[in-house]
């Protein structure tokens, strides 16, 4: 049994555990509906994307029906919900760091398999600060970028508290942006937006504009391939393009076999790159793909379909915190796929959680 200590910044808690999932699903339906409406409006204004309007309208209609049903379910559950205790029943222990998004993380010890009860209601007024941020380590310190509260903010985790810096991003970076630690951890690369192919680097003090990609890669991920940043696919443009960034700019890699977005990318020590989870035509995926020697091959499956997650590679295991599942991808000494295990569920539904290594007594 592999054990690892994590820190994870999560947001938005409901008043009782029985309500959390329903509320999160409704929030996600609203988000998806809004994404489709934005996409349709911008296409109508002349954006060059190949999407069928009747399909968008059909999905919007379907989401409207689902929203009404989910709202009714949540209303009934809220009426029946009662407060829960702060105790937890643990079997395989790990450590998450749960933020109330008011910048001060709250220590919560839970297990990777099942936390039968969770904390009671947390302060809703703080939930915006870490909503939709992207994160990266720079010189050993954790930084978060952009997000719903301020899409140009930069904040650093100092001890048990996020402190917003005077430094600012050069472009708006929100839900569709990506961030990655590069140059042996000395820089963060922050890229993309809904119709934005721009990138910038951050050295812990200042954000500097760098090369723009040929394509936009909204929700296309950032990972490492052959020791260089790489990105795959796009949410709104629906393309298969793969690009990599060198010291002279972005260049093309082989297209991914399908139009994918909201996946996770992890670079391996053998200079190959794994891509897993994500969405194709709105459907969550299970495939684990490898780009090696400039060729894409499917090498396995996740334990369950997953999307909108963050990953952590340590000790030949990739820990994947998806929106609704936690999975471990085990590799052998040659970094070949060995097995995949579903090891639990996050304390709540959360897209792209902030994930970092820490110690059991962190912020306790």
Automatic annotation (TrEMBL):
Give start-end of the signal peptide: 1-16
Keywords in alphabetical order:
Coiled coil, Signal
Q: Which residues form a coiled coil?
A: 19-46
Answer yes or no on keyword Coiled coil.
yes
Q: What is this protein called?
A: Uncharacterized protein
Source organism (scientific name): Oikopleura dioica (Tunicate)
């Amino acid at each position: 049994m592999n054990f690892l200590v994590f820190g994870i910044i999560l947001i938005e808690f409901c008043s009782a555990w029985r309500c959390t999932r329903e509320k999160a699903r409704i929030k996600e339906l609203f988000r998806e509906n809004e994404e489709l409406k934005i996409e349709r409006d911008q296409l109508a204004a002349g954006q060059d994307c190949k999407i069928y309007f009747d399909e968008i309208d059909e999905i919007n209609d379907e989401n409207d029906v689902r929203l009404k049903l989910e709202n009714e379910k949540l209303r009934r559950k809220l009426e029946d919900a009662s407060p829960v205790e702060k105790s937890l029943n643990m079997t395989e222990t790990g450590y998450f760091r749960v933020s109330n998004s008011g910048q001060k993380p709250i220590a919560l010890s839970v297990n990777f398999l099942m936390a039968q009860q969770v904390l009671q209601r947390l302060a809703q007024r703080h939930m915006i600060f870490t909503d939709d941020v992207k994160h990266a380590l720079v010189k050993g310190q954790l930084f978060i970028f952009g997000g719903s509260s301020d899409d140009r903010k930069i904040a650093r985790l100092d001890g048990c508290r996020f402190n917003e810096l005077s430094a600012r991003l050069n472009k708006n970076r929100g839900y569709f942006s990506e961030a990655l630690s590069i140059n042996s951890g000395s820089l963060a690369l922050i890229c993309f937006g809904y119709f934005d192919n721009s990138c910038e680097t951050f050295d812990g003090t200042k954000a500097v504009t760098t090369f723009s990609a040929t394509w936009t890669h909204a929700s296309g991920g950032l990972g490492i391939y052959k020791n260089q940043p790489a990105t795959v696919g796009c949410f709104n443009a629906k393309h298969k393009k793969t690009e990599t960034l060198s010291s002279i700019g972005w260049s093309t890699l082989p297209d991914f076999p399908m139009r994918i977005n909201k996946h996770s990318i992890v670079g391996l020590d053998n200079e190959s790159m794994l891509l897993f989870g994500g969405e194709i035509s709105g459907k969550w995926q299970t495939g684990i793909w490898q780009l090696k020697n400039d060729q894409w091959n499917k090498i396995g499956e996740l334990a369950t379909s997953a999307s909108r997650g963050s990953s952590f590679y340590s000790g030949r295991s990739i820990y994947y915190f998806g929106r609704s599942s936690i999975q471990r991808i085990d590799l052998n000494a040659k970094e070949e796929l060995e097995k995949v295990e579903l090891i639990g569920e996050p304390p709540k539904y959360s897209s792209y959680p902030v994930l970092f290594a820490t110690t059991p007594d962190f912020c306790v």
